[in-house]
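Table S5 (text form). Sequence records supplied for joint modeling of the two-component complex.
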Amino acid sequence: NAGVTQTPKFQVLKTGQSMTLQCAQDMNHEYMSWYRQDPGMGLRLIHYSVGAGITDQGEVPNGYNVSRSTTEDFPLRLLSAAPSQTSVYFCASSYSYWALGSNYGYTFGSGTRLTVV
Amino acid sequence: AQTVTQSQPEMSVQEAETVTLSCTYDTSESDYYLFWYKQPPSRQMILVIRQEAYKQQNATENRFSVNFQKAAKSFSLKISDSQLGDAAMYFCAFCSKGAQKLVFGQGTRLTINP
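The corresponding structure-token record, covering 231 residues in total, follows.
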């Protein structure tokens, strides 16, 4: 049982390049989300999905796109990378959004450190 | 919108001593959950402790306990008998019942001095 798998673990991009951060979970979780972590800012929600085919914006969605075509995968796309998107990105999943408050809560991936130069 | 504030960017404590990390939050909801997550240098996010707002009793998990003051909207984490392995970034988080997201605080970096 792999849990939440994020790839790649590290990435360096040039300004204007595009890329996709991959997130996959094998726990049949309905809910998946993307956060970015910046010093002094904590974790801020980018996008989330309560089920396949359903996505919604979080606190900081600008510059990012998501889709949820399957239950297992929730990729995060940067269409034109900017230095302001340099951050550590976390994918997290839960059985369902109504389970976020439970002891099971969130399962986090190990993060992707992205640097945009 | 709910907000979570951790006013201590950094804290340090001597090994075997007790340390308290502060967290305040703002919400108009009455039914919600509060969490403390630990992030060691490995970057992995680990759930330390969870509190349900409707429970008056403070949650405890071994050396970790919370002081939940609902009226004051305060949720502090006490670590007793600090160990070197407790060194990490600690995040306070809030989730109202039925909400579709967790809201995190800014984090407190805890250093344990041997």
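Note: Chain A is about 0% helix and 50% strand.
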